[in-house]
Amino acid sequence: MTLAQLVVSTVGPLVSIQDAGRFGRLRFGVTDAGPMDRLAHAAANLSIGNARGATAIEVSVGGVALECRSGSVTVAVAGGGFVVQHASQTHTEWTAVTMRPGERLAVRPGGWGSWAYIAVAGTLDASMWLGSTSTHSASGFGGGVLTAGQQLEIADARVESDREGEIPLPDFARPPGRVRVVMGPQTQHFRDEATAAFVGRPYELTSAYDRMGVRLDGPALPLRDVLSIPSEPIIRGSVQVAGDGVPTVLLADHQTTGGYPKIATVVSADIDAFAQQRPGEMVAFDPIDAATAIDIARTTRPLVGDYLATVAGAGRTLTHRLRLSNLISEAQI
Amino acid sequence: MTPGGSPALVARFVPVGDRGLLVEFATVISEAANRAVLTLDKALAGSSVVGINEVVPAMTNALILFDPVLTDHVALRIEIERLLDAADESQPEPQIRRVQVCYDESFGHDLSVVATACDMSVDAVIAAHLAGDYRVLMYGFAPGYAYLGGVDPTIQVPRKPAAIRGIPAGRVIIAGPQCIVTTFVMPAGWSVIGSSPTPILDPAAEHPFLFDVGDRVVFERIDLASHDAAVAAVAAAGTDSS
Lengths: 333, 242
Fold this sequence. Notes:
A: alpha+beta; 7-stranded mixed β-barrel; 5 helices; elongated; disordered C terminus; B: alpha+beta; Cyclophilin; 4-stranded antiparallel sheet
């Protein structure tokens, strides 16, 4: 067994350990958690030969710097437009590099995006809670939040020389500033003008943004009956409106139930890219009907599957990667 | 199919994005609505409807989470209506879960406040709490945070003006008509009346959660010495979830 050891040199807030998530226990009050951007998390893992849902580090705009103490390990960084500094090289694309003893890897926010993922070729040692290493932010259980000086151990560390280099960034990973929503499930609790206001003008993401969700700023959404609705289930993507008429989009660490009405639900295909938006950016809500939402889910999954299968393909040569990038660029136009 | 002779509640189906279907039996909390939720939950658990990932039962509704590649809102609605038509609404005899509670003033610092508000003695408040007929209505808010319906109306007190931060795990709280045993350190705006050493959430166990939705809960009073011994025993077993 080959061990690699990394030390956290510096770290900002909200940098945490996440595997794919903790599923199937919403009925017991346990939220899924897992990555804010599940696509980028999967791409980082698959690009270096890991299982799709392997334990990785989620990096916030606070950034992180790691130093390799011993052993060598290939790591991949994907998600948003972060800047990666490694061994005197600076990368602005999603990339895989190999860390050797004494080398430093710094991941800092770049041109766009709120979350990046550092996947390590091997098994990142992390505490498991209820079957998952994802950090449960309210309790701190699971892998937990990274702290300066913390040592990270990677069991079965691998060097994947032929997987080093750029990881293609698909068009659908970038937030377009619009998300598609299915209205409801509690439109009846809003005054008639609320629905029109919600889809009529973009909202600004505020700095009240963490893994639980992001509070928006924009037209108020007047409630018909501010009293309370029976506490009922919430999912990632629920747009909840508190008594003050201000909407919040709930994300990976949402509470499992709540008593505030939900005016709309963001479709699954748009949630990961939306989570990459930053405070101060605008988002517009495009209402679609439920049947259209199903169609979108069914057309999106094979696209994502094809992209991830390509990223996972072993032995990507530079030529192959360049061709792939071109293909993807063509598809974007 | 309504053994009690009462009319069956009509379910309302509402899409939740591209992967959820909310099945709503009422818009206000009622025993009949919660019973309908339990009936649906049980029927789904015993069925093999394609594409369902998870069922989240709540007070008056249940959220069905599904894989949109395998099914959709319309197909699921048809399946669920069929299941509800055929459902056996007689609930099986519920499991009874026993939860120990110590009402020592060092934990139950709101007991005297509740007693004053309800114009009762502290002993009478304790007796009323022990006499409650509790049912697990739903989990929510936090892992293992179960809403137990059935608090005696004589001790239902309103929320405090502001939440108190740092309520430890294992505190027994009355929140209007519901009783809750906390599973984490959390803020709470309700009345803390006691402490329980009974693990509601044991992450190491095969079944980490003590209750299933629909279970009956009986509180059993213990004294301070028994409480402290039980807390120590749980901690020693390494299964303390707090």
